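Same chain as my last thread, 145 residues:
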Amino acid sequence: MGLVQQSLQQVFSDTYALYLKTQNYHWNVTGLHFKSLHDMFEEQYDSLAEAIDELAERIRALGEKTKASFTYFRDMTKITEPDQQADAEAMLHDLLNSHEQLISSLEQAKKISGDQDDSVTEDMMIARLSAHQKVVWMLRASLSR
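reply #2:
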């Protein structure tokens, strides 16, 4: 597997783990801001689901099989498990940290793609960076502290 495909597989795994975490928090959020957070988390996991498909298809377009199993994701991802006891504020902090971790994986994949003259993958990573930077802004704006 080439360097670009390896970096894409990391981004794919991190995105899938973040998708699952975000969906978990969507189902389990409670409190004063339940409705707005429930809706925001749903928008975020819907966006992540689209990204997962795009990433998997890019890996396939580059000639590799897309590795996708819960065991593989668990072993590969840098995203932590969701905190099942988290309140709404802790969920926001956890998602913020997870998006920042994914941004780190995206930046590495962008650099590798650029170094390997793969402008299509590099452009895809730039678009994903933009999407996650916007989510980071929204999560930070939603925090009470």
